[in-house]
Design brief:
Layout lengths: L10 H4 L4 H16 L2 H25 L6 H6 L7 H16 L3 H6 L1 H19 L31 H17 L5 H15 L6 H15 L10 H8 L1 H13 L2 H31 L3
Length: about 280
């Protein structure tokens, strides 16, 4: 890191109780998946299926809990709010794999692009297209429901801008913390700030995906953490997020561990896909 770069704020998080174990467990699971014989020949197929399952999971956490086969079958996602949510999840998940080069230099530009993809269609129909692709301004409400009953008050636009800038600086300068810690912080910070007027959950989960892709932990995108978050359930997701929002050491550690479990569950899904491909059943 450059001598004039800010101190790494994530270093202490990596030392919290239980975090090292979560990091090691995730690395072991991901390495096992990458060592699967199917991954040597059919990684692109596994990655495509992982993206589909990740998008389905992210949509479920945003209130559109569709069966995987329904997501796979559908081609029209403009019929109603749930369909639009699934379509938005598919778009931002696909964009995550294309955004790495821009993310490394200007993460905030990618976040704006993700929100544009997620909210552009519905927002335009609702007559609020001018709120798409930029952080909310004073007086602009957030239309998606709070994830937790004890969610802290939403910070105002000036505080959002300051914290987004700090996040941007962190990501551009890099961190010595493990990829899981960085991904969990990006995810939790965006969910806590809710910088956009809508679709913050989809954007936050896609951002976590980008960090995992770009860090080298999951460069092929075959560990869909979004699917794991959905499998643990909305209530567990909410409780863990409340821990992050609290800012306490115990709460932050629990959120990081929760994100680690989500990655491991995503890995388990992809291992099952590999086994199915090996048997010729998929």
């Amino acid at each position: 890191m450059h001598a004039n770069a800010p101190a790494d704020p994530l270093g202490p998080l990596a030392a919290l109780p239980g975090v090292a174990d979560a990091v090691d467990s995730v690395r072991t699971a991901v390495d096992r998946l990458y060592g699967h014989r199917v991954m040597r020949r059919r990684a692109a197929e596994v990655a495509s299926e992982a993206a589909l399952r990740g998008a389905r999971g992210s949509a479920a956490l945003s209130g559109a809990d569709w069966a995987l086969e329904e997501v796979r079958r559908r081609t029209d996602f403009g019929d109603d709010d749930q369909a639009r949510t699934v379509g938005a999840a598919l778009r931002v998940t696909a964009e995550a794999g294309e955004a790495l080069d821009v993310w490394r230099g200007t993460p905030l530009r990618v976040l704006a692009r993700l929100h544009l993809l997620a909210a552009g269609g519905p927002a335009a129909r609702a007559g609020t297209a001018d709120t798409v692709g930029r952080p909310r301004l004073a007086g602009e409400p957030v239309t998606e429901p709070l994830l937790t009953d004890d969610h802290p008050p939403l910070p105002g636009p000036e505080a959002v801008a300051a914290r987004l800038d700090a996040l941007n600086q962190l990501l551009v300068h890099g961190s010595t913390a493990p990829a899981l810690v960085t991904a969990a912080v990006v995810h939790g910070e965006l969910l806590t700030l809710r910088p956009f007027t809508s679709h913050n959950g989809l954007v936050a989960r896609a951002a976590q995906r980008i960090v995992l892709l770009g860090s080298g932990l999951d460069p092929k995108g075959v560990a869909p953490a979004e699917a794991g978050h959905a499998e643990t359930g909305t209530e567990a997701y909410r409780r863990a997020l409340a821990g992050y929002a609290s800012g306490t050491a115990a709460g932050m550690a629990e959120w990081i561990a929760h994100c680690g479990r989500a990655v491991e569950l995503g890995v388990r899904e992809s291992v099952a896909v590999c086994e199915a491909l090996q048997r010729g059943a998929a």
